[in-house]
Amino acid sequence: MRDTLAGPRQLIKQLHAVMAAPLEAQERLDRIVRIIADNMVAEVSSLYILREDGILELYATHGLNPSAVHRAGLRVGQGLVGRVAKTAQPLNITNPRSHPGFAYLPETGEDEYNTFLGVPVLRAGRMLGVLTVQNRAPKRYDNEEVEALQTTAMVIAEIAGTGDLEKIPQSTAALDISRQLHVAGVSLVEGVGLGRAVLHEPRVVVTRLLNDDVEHELNRLETALDKIRGNLVAHLSRDEVKGDGAPRDVLEAFLMIAQDRGWARKMADVVRSGLTAEAAVERVQSDNRARLLRSTDRLVRERLHDLDDLANRLLRELMGRSPTSLAQITGDAIIVARSMGAAELLDYERTRIRGLVMEEGTPASHVTLIARALGIPTIGQAAGVTSMVESGEAIIIDADGGDVHIRPSPDVENVFAEKVRFRARKQAQYRRLRHLPATTRDGQDVTLSMNAGMLADMPHLKESGAAGVGLFRTEVLFMVAPSLPRMQAQEQLYRQIYKGAEGRPVTFRSLDIGGDKILPYLRKVEEENPAMGWRAVRLGLDRPGLLRTQIRAFLLAAAGQELKLMFPMVTTVAEYNAARALVDRERRFLHTHGYTLPESTKLGVMLETPSLLFELEELLQVTDFVSVGTNDLFQFAMAADRSNVRVAGRFDTLSQSFVRMLKRVADACREANVPVTVCGDYASRPLEALCLLGLGYTHLSMPPAAIGPVKAAIRATDLGRLRARLWPRLEPGRGNDDLRHLLSRFADANDIPV
Question: Is 669 among the residues known to form the active site?
Answer without folding.
Answer: no
